[in-house]
């Protein structure tokens, strides 16, 4: 029996949340068709061929990272590990006894030699505005530019969320199988959102929640999908999601800021500045700058701006 079939049986037997079917699986999808059918309507999709040009597509495995990056140090849940040591723990872990998670690196900062192996950035994920030199990067330095995640059986992302500042999320599965659970934006009122972190749910143990404590969650609509090696999941901005590893997994994830989610980004960034205590004048000036910048970007992108296929470059 396949991993997907097993998960479907488990979900239907134990989970009262209503399962839906929004996520298509596609191959041969052009960038223009993707924008028209998925990005603009904000519909998730899984594509199985956009990372085939990446050298890491055929290289990623625990042994590869032991050999090439085994001495790299990573801190997980307050403890430091060498990556080869962590790989051993991941391969020895089980659903009942999971290894520490999440284990992740920012590739450009921590594993820069790996950058050449995740090129080119596929055109479906362009244009990309957040790395443009005109962007006020110091205000959102916490945004995911390009990260690699390692996980073992039972490793669970710690909370249900959407990507901060309404970024689009791209998850590229390089090795193993990872289950993602998605809730559309209109389910927000059922997900017990944290007031001070409106991109994050306060539900504890969200993979097996206490429905007496979170009764509204019973009414929520969701879909769970399994990413296989070579799959890429596009999670549109505002879609709530979480993940768990079903075996040893290697995933590469990044965010995208484009014209279609610019207004959401601008609203969220200004709201974040207000939460941090910045005054009305400061926030108003930021908002005016971003409105002007958005218009300039929109015009420039008609002529090919913000379409560099390399990472972390304007």
How does this structure look, described?
This protein has 314 residues and is of the alpha+beta class. Helix content is 25%, strand content 23%. Strands 2-3-13-8-15-7-6 form a seven-stranded mixed sheet. A four-stranded mixed sheet has the order 1-12-9-14. Strands 4-5 form a two-stranded antiparallel ribbon. Strand 4 and strand 5 form a beta hairpin. Helix 6 packs antiparallel against helix 7. The longest helix is centred in the last third of the chain and has 22 residues, at 280-301. It is globular, with a radius of gyration of 20 Å. The mean pLDDT is 91.
What attributes does this structure have?
single chain; 314 residues; alpha+beta; 7-stranded mixed beta sheet; 4-stranded mixed beta sheet; 7 helices
């Amino acid at each position: 029996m396949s991993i997907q079939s097993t998960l479907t049986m488990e979900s239907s037997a134990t989970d009262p949340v209503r399962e839906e079917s929004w996520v298509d699986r596609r191959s041969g999808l052009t960038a223009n068709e993707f924008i028209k059918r998925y990005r603009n309507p904000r519909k998730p999709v899984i594509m199985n061929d956009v990372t085939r040009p990446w050298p890491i597509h055929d290289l990623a495995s625990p042994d590869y990272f032991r050999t090439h990056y085994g001495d790299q140090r990573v801190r997980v849940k307050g403890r430091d590990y060498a990556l080869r040591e962590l790989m051993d723990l991941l391969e020895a872990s089980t659903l009942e006894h999971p290894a520490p998670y999440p284990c992740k690196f920012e590739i450009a900062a921590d594993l820069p030699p790996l950058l050449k192996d995740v090129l080119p950035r596929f055109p479906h994920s362009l244009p990309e505005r957040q790395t443009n030199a005109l962007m006020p990067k110091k205000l959102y330095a916490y945004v995911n530019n390009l990260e690699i995640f390692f996980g073992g059986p039972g490793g669970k992302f710690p909370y249900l969320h959407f990507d901060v500042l309404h970024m689009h999320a791209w998850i590229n599965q390089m090795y193993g199988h990872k289950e993602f659970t998605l809730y559309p934006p209109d389910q927000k009122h059922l997900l017990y959102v944290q007031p001070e972190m409106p991109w994050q749910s306060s539900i504890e143990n969200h993979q097996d929640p206490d429905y007496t404590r979170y009764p509204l969650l019973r009414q929520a609509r969701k879909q769970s999908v399994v990413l296989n090696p070579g799959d890429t999941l596009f999670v549109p901005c505002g879609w709530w999601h979480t993940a768990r590893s079903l075996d040893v997994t290697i995933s590469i994830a990044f965010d995208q800021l484009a014209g279609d989610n610019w207004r959401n980004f601008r609203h969220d960034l200004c709201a974040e500045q207000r939460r941090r205590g910045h005054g009305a004048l400061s926030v108003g000036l930021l908002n005016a700058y971003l409105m002007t910048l958005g218009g300039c970007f929109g015009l420039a992108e008609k002529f090919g701006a913000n379409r560099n296929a390399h990472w972390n470059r304007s």
